[in-house]
């Protein structure tokens, strides 16, 4: 379902007038429109590594520059997928992961030679507290570093926008949005029932997509 269809699915369950355009709403319709985006956010935030948020990107190094901005939608880096392309006849090599505290303690001073004598082909990486990619040693030229990561998402805005959540789980978005609508109406009994359906749905997602059964995290 797209954004418009999701909104109307909730409105139909609430016995409210459906809409023809998400840009023209009022009252409960406007609330439901917000609840749909809030519901998708709840689902995505309930798990760090949903496979449907997996993505990839690259950075190109500059000689003497040790830290680089990562993808704007990055949530967390898959540490086992960071590789450097050294170019020419050299292989694509994995970079060793350094915890940031370890880098500060054991390698920062080595990476800070003002005469650039420390520049070399990077062999390790770290992630800063600002979610930047750091390299050790600092590169002595232009290399391509590739990585994979779990991403955040953007709210839906237009009628035809489609959730990041796979379509077979769109009923979970609808149930979560209904929960918020019932809470708005102070219908606590209906809210409890839809909250139960939502949590069971997220558990089903974990089983199917991550193959792990666990309890719903707080959102």
Structural account:
- There is one protein chain.
- The protein has 219 residues and is α+β, with helices and mostly antiparallel strands.
- The chain has two domains: 3-49 and 154-209, no CATH class; 51-151, no CATH class.
- 33% of the residues lie in helices and 18% in strands.
- It is built from five helices and nine strands, in the order ααββββββαβββαα.
- It has helices spanning 3-13, 28-45, 100-106, 170-184, 188-209, and strands spanning 54-60, 67-69, 74-77, 83-85, 92-94, 96-97, 124-127, 132-136, 144-151.
- Strands 1, 3, 4, 5 and 9 form a five-stranded antiparallel sheet that branches.
- Helix 1 (3-13) crosses helix 2, helix 1 packs across helix 4 (170-184) and helix 4 (170-184) runs antiparallel to helix 5.
- It is elongated, with a radius of gyration of 23 Å.
- The two termini are 24 Å apart.
- The mean pLDDT is 92.
Q: Which characteristics define this entry?
A:
single chain; 219 residues; alpha+beta; 2 domains; four-stranded mixed beta sheet; 5 helices; 9 strands; elongated
């Amino acid at each position: 379902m797209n954004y418009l269809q999701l909104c109307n699915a909730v409105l139909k369950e609430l016995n409210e007038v459906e809409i023809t355009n998400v840009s023209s709403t009022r009252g409960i319709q406007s609330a439901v429109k917000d609840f749909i985006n809030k519901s998708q956010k709840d689902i995505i935030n309930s798990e760090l590594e949903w496979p449907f948020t997996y993505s990839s990107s690259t950075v190109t190094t500059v000689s003497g520059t040790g830290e680089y901005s990562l993808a704007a939608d990055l949530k967390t880096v898959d540490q086992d997928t960071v590789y450097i392309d050294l170019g020419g006849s050299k292989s694509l090599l994995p970079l060793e992961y350094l915890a940031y505290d370890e880098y500060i303690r054991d390698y920062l001073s080595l990476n800070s030679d003002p005469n650039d004598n420390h520049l070399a082909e990077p062999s390790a990486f770290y992630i800063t507290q600002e979610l930047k990619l750091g390299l050790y040693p600092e590169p002595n030229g232009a290399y391509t570093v590739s990585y994979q990561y779990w991403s955040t998402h953007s709210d839906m805005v237009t009628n035809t926008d489609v959730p990041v959540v796979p379509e077979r789980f769109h009923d979970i978005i609808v149930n979560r949005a209904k929960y918020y609508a019932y809470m708005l109406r102070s219908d606590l009994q209906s809210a409890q029932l839809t909250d139960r359906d939502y949590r069971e749905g997220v558990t089903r997602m974990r089983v199917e997509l991550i193959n792990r059964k666990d309890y719903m995290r707080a959102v």
